[in-house]
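Field notebook, page 287. I keep forgetting to write these up properly, so this time I am using the form the group agreed on. The chain and the ligand, zinc ion, are recorded exactly as supplied. Prediction of the bound pose follows.
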Amino acid sequence: MLVSAKEMLTKAKAGKYAVGQFNINNLEWTKAILLTAQEMNSPVILGVSEGAGKYMCGFKTVADMVKAMIDELKITVPVALHLDHGSYEGAKKCIEAGFSSIMFDGSHYPIAENIEKTKELVDTCNKLGLSLEAEVGAIGGEEDGVIGGGEVADPAECKMIADLGVTMLAAGIGNIHGKYPENWTGLRFDVLAKIQELTGTMPLVLHGGTGIPADMIKEAISLGVSKINVNTECQLAFAAATRKYIEEGKDLQGKGFDPRKLLAPGVEAIKATVKEKIELFGSANKA
Ligand SMILES: [Zn+2]
């Protein structure tokens, strides 16, 4: 069923595990993630970036597809449909379209403006029973070029945003979106511990989950991370499996060109990735 992310993340924080946010790009992606979460009896968050929303013909198309799929596939585990890195305008559109969770990323604004805009969305989301993720400071990524250390948030600013009453908080602790550079210096557990100390029971969000070693993920969870975003890893798994199918000439055999056959290995690869992450994050059987 489609729910806000609040209850699943409160439980995760208390139970010292994390719920995965897996970004979706199309019907196959969505189906693969929902079926795997159900099979693993795990809560799950479907992430939709503004670009992916546009690609899938708008947020309403996405929300209607997800709701229909939950119904048709008889998905009983808690599912949150979440806007990923939303703009202020994008957040409003997703609220209208029927999303159950919103991320407003005001990290590129000066802190005062981030606070002001986040505060307004806290009120709107609270009234509607939606969960809201806010972000402090920029998290590094490909668009910033290669930065070995990633971006790091200021714990005092994290407390200011947390105190607005958001549901969960994303803060840079040396994590990076996309593939990690070879000279990456690792997660800043000292900063994470400080943020956790100041924000108490607030579920913390780790972005850029692809390629962070398992032991670092586990340590981050032990220090209060209760939501981990995975996007690139599913894309790499899908692409590799599709490449293999075509390179082996399977699309040229019989009806191998049928999109339902052509996309099947990629879907299985996404399922395997999601399963592996659910096991690592510890959310299996926590639905
Ligand atoms: Zn992110």
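OBSERVATIONS:
- The chain has one domain: 6-281.
- The pocket of zinc ion is lined by residues 85, 177, 207, 229 (CB under 6 Å).
FOLLOW-UP: compare against the apo run.
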